[in-house]
Structure formats: C-alpha cells, structure tokens
Fold this protein.
Amino acid sequence: MQTSDLRIALFSGNYNYVRDGANQALNRLVGYLLRQGAHVRVYSPTTNTPAFPPTGELVSVPSMAIPNRPEYRMPLSLSSSLKRDLAAFAPNIMHISSPDRVARQAAKWARDRQMPVLASVHTRFETYFRYYNMSFLEPLVEAWLRKLYRKCDALVAPSESMAQVLRQQRMNYDIDIWSRGVDREIFDPSRRDMAWRRKHGIEDDVPAIGFLGRLVMEKGLDVFSDTIDQLHRRNIRHQVLVIGEGPARHWFESRLPDAAFVGFQGGADLARAVASMDILFNPSVTETFGNVTLEAMACGLPVVAAKATGSQSLVEDNRSGRLITPGAIAQYAEALRLYCEDPALRALHGKAGEQRSLDYSWDAINQAVADTYLRLIRQRSVRGS
C-alpha cells in the first residue's frame, strides 16, 4: 500500500473559518496528500465568511457559535446525511483533529467498522481554563480528553515535548511526531523593512519587541503586558509591535497604549512584519508547537518564550533565545532587557535560531503523517486477518 491508496476522512473543528496555526497546518497537509494522489474529504463547521479558501473537498458540519467566543463554532452532531456521505466516500482511515462531540462520534463510526483512527493534537485545551478563572476544571477536561485519545489507534503531536506531556497524562502510548514547517521563501531576515517600521512609529535605533498571534487571553496577553510594564519601570528603551487580531484587542491596546498594533498580516506582509521586529516575546503556554516561534527564528530573531511545550522544542536556551518559567514576569523582563541593550547578543542568538529553522521542511514533515496513516492501516489489517 502507498500514499496514493489512502482515503482519509478528516474531521476538524475549524478548517478555514478562522485563521490559526492549526488549521493552516491541516490545509497544508491536505494539499500535500492530494499532490501525492491520496483522496481526502474534510468535515468541518463552515461560515459564509471564511478566513481563507479550503484546500480540498469540504463538507459542512452542523454547528453553533460558541457563547462569548462567537468567532468559533461548536460542531453539533454527526447527522444522518454526514454518515451517508462518509459511507459513500468509503475512507480507509479516520483523522480527527479536535476533541469535540462530532469528532468523537466520527471516531466511533470508524471503530464500529474496524477502521483505524488517528488523532492530531494541536493545542493544550486543558490549559485554556486557567485564563478564564476556571482552572479547577483542568483535571476534568484532562480526563475527558484521555477517554477519547485512549480509544484512538495513535496520536500525532507537533513536538517531542508535547508527545512527552501526552505520555505523562496517559493519553496514549503510540505517539508520532507531526512537526511544523516554515516557508523559507517567505520568512527570511532579508524581509526586514526599516521604512515600514518608521511608518508605524518605530525608531531605527530602538529595539522592537514583537507579539505575534491571535489576540485572545490564552496567548498570555496578561503576562506580556505585565512584563512590558516592568521594562517601562526600569527605563529600558524599547517599542512594542503587535501583529494579529482577536476579541481581546481592545483590552491589549488599553494595557499597551504606546504599542504599534498593525493588525492581521499574511504571506509576504507577515514575513516583513516579523523580520522588522528585533525580538519575539511569546509567553503562551497553550501551543503544542509554536508556529510563530519558528517563523521568527527563520527571520533571524532571538525568541523569549515560556518554558513550555512548543517553544521548548524549538528554542535552545541561551543560544537562540531564552526559555523562562511560565508567568515569571521578572525573569521575562530581565531576558528582554539583555536583548534590548546588547545588539551583538541579539544578532548572535538570532543567527543560531535561523540556522535551526532550516531543519523544518514541509514535505518531509507531512509525509511523516502519511506514513503513520499507512502504518495504522497495515497494523489493523494484520489484527483483522
């Protein structure tokens, strides 16, 4: 059996209606699989105003807007029409990418037909509740996730550090790595644009500390802004550049009144904005990989990040950036101070990060997922014979 023999039913909670790193990785995977001759059918909630066109065939799943977060949608049920569509497509493997109700029903549909199920883990859902004063729910959510993931044939995680967390949580013990890549034709230090910086009020000789990502509280916006307050108190020369949009933008702007907010950027515009920073500051602990960290490294920036899954697999402490205990405001501020005041250190660590980013080729990374599909189908065939 080879990649072209694959028939993959992929269930996503958000394939293209809101842009984020997880759904962009899924779309890139589907594009690669289709180029290899595989057949893929994607099932996801949809809207009339998607963030970008979907890659491949997309079937709409009944859904409703999530209360207090209406930009996201909650899949409701694996309806009879969806089951008929699945049966007509006749997949030989099921891939679920979010632990929602419909994904669970789809996984059961596959298991009832002796079909292997792969789950990809894109974010640490259990940690989200810390940012909404509901951390007491974290053990319950972890147990709820474990119930699903233990029933899957295997998991794929974006980094070895995340795979280790999943093993420690006893989610599954068959875990492969589906890393993330970076487009080096776009993300490169040569994209730095001093005129663009000046247009947004950033002086040439002042280091720009950047934030990149959706503006939601679970990205560590409170830690970021508290750390910047420390730099102000210590009279450290710097400016802040924020790239991204989201429901917490107004709150973030109120905490960072002197920052340059440039909104959502994509493609070459994003690469220009990232390369025009001097330091990326990423305090989030919810990512399982950290696409933004890799993009910044490819642009030759040192990264100050939380010592957590994601960045921990990319950043080498004291060589390409700093890894700081999550929430340690004073330590974050000290790491940023050193980079702000020492341009030679910025350049040295930025160059090391750029070199590290060369290891991430998208085609090789996505073939690893195809190889996992093929392995699970072979193993299920042997068990069934």
User: Anything to note?
Assistant: The chain has a mean pLDDT of 91. The radius of gyration is 21 Å. The chain has two domains: 3-181+361-384, 189-357. The longest strand covers residues 69-75.
